[in-house]
Amino acid sequence: MKLLVISLCTTGVMREHFISYCRCFSKNVGLYCITNDNVSNDELNAKETLNLYYKRQKKTSYFSLSKIRKIKKFTKTVNPDLVYVFTPHPVNILIARFLRKYKLIFQVHDPVPHSKTSFLDKLVLRVQLKQYYKYSDKLIVAGEVLKNQIAEKHSKLKNKISVVPFAMLDSLRAEAGERPCNTDLLFYGRIEYYKGLDILFEALDILGNKYTCFVIGKGDLYAAYGNDVKIPANVTFINEYIPDGELAEKIAASKIVVLPYRDATGSMTVVQAYYYGKPVIATDVGTFPEYVKDGGIIVEREDPRALADSIDKLLSDGELLKTLSANARRVYTENYTLEVMTENMQKIFEETVNEQE
Which pTM value belongs to this model? Predict the structure, then answer.
């Protein structure tokens, strides 16, 4: 099978996700890729890669007919059995139309926009999804809740949608071995309103600086939550992107990972925490209940008291913490390894290619 994977959004975790997945796919198929210019063919382990320059900060880079012609020419030369569009990107709107003669699979990351998403981003997402739903042979989502969100509005698509949970990334795997857990709580990820960092701060205030907490993420805290947001005294705030190796060490050195989101779609954070046997406290949104299972605690969204009580319960009960840590590692092994993901995706690829028109 010839598989062409297209991923034009290659920043942060999207880049690492793309690389890890492609290296797995390359073991079973003839892999070809179209991607941005910050990912090399060697990293992907592909037979051939077309690199194009796109940059979010430079909107004019999107509007290039010559790049579209290159995409069409490369695809025609490869003549793939299947095209898998992995990451969201404005150019995917055109790709969906121009490559519709091929078998097409689209990964839908966000069936609905996050809270406080800009009008322009909402518009692009809406148009992009319309094209996905119209031209796809198959849609892939990271959880049953996302499948249901699509099927509720587009019932005819239900049989097109396959669920494949996210898998652990190679770049976040640190060497095995015991590490001292010198941080009680860890929150990490880009600073966005929907991630509810202000709710975590309120919960920590309720607990009276009882526990230490690391917050790691790039973004403007005050633009996201307003100028009145206050960082508690027991929080160490690293307001920048840190390399994956350093982040892996921070996860491994924490007792629990906390996800106080207001809303969510899919998230790899649970998978990453569970790889290191770290229990998760997350809100009842998006795929969190599906992913957390019995390796953590689910609390109501936007409820600082419930979040505080769960943090206190878990960190003050050594046996419970030990049990949930063991559960987290087991849930990871059963559900979120790259091997499990690759097996599931390979089945979908083969089914899609073999389906009759």
Answer: 0.89
